[in-house]
Amino acid sequence: MVERSGSGDGRRNCTLNRILIIDDEPANILLLETILGGADIEIRSITDSRQTELTFLEFMPDLMLLDLHMPEPDGLEILRQLRGVRSQMFVPVVVLTADTGKRARQSALVLGADDFLTKPFDQFEVRLRVRNLLRTRALYVELSDARSALESRLGEPTIKELRRRGHIVEVGPGWSEGRLTAASRVGKRRRAAANPRGMQGYAAGR
């Protein structure tokens, strides 16, 4: 097994975007590490797909790049293995494949894949797709943290009542950046309509 972990400055901290790469071809891993390496990126790479679940839980990535065609377990099986874990958090998965057929892509989408990168890789496309999904992940984390803070501040009885009235929009894994942004705006409009003065005071921190 080849396993590497590194970031632009060699240090690990909470401001880094963590990317997990699983591919049985070291050359593909080296290329992706070269394309994506930067001061704000920490990359963990493995070639032995049997180590994926353990590495995922230990590393807790913000994004996973997953080769589709590997010795067992292959990419589809890994998506199945991680389905339970990913149902509790939003960690985007980009499937890496040279297969342009619909069947493989549809199977991956059904199992929770968020995007695809076709081999051979286009450097611009790799950076763009990864950047967009990391931005979506950051927005999800921001909304999740804000919800937790709100629940802590208001208490469970109040939260239940707000949910019943539709003033709290639940977000979960599989939401796109557009849906997350729209959910945030809808929630704000509903709260403002229900209590304009209260929303102004809340926004001001009063």
Q: Topology of this protein?
A:
Blueprint: E1 3-7, E2 17-22, H1 26-36, E3 41-46, H2 52-59, E4 63-67, H3 75-81, H4 83-86, E5 93-97, H5 102-110, E6 115-118, H6 123-154, H7 156-165, H8 177-194, H9 196-203
Parallel strand pairs: 2-3, 2-4, 4-5, 5-6
Antiparallel strand pairs: 1-3
Helix pairs in contact: 6-7, 6-8, 8-9
What does this structure look like?
The protein has 9 helices and 6 strands; from the N terminus they run ββαβαβααβαβαααα. The chain is α/β, with parallel strands linked by helices and 206 residues long. Helix 6 runs parallel beside helix 8 (177-194). The chain is elongated and about 55 Å long. The N and C termini lie far apart (55 Å). Mean pLDDT is 80; it is low at 6-13 and 198-206.
Summarize this entry quickly.
The protein is α/β, with parallel strands linked by helices and 206 residues long.
> What would you call the structural class?
alpha/beta
Order of helices and strands: EEHEHEHHEHEHHHH
Number of strands: 6
The fraction of residues assigned to DSSP E strands is 15-25%
Radius of gyration: 20 Å
Task: Give the helix proportion (percent range).
Answer: 40-55%
End-to-end span in angstroms? 55 Å
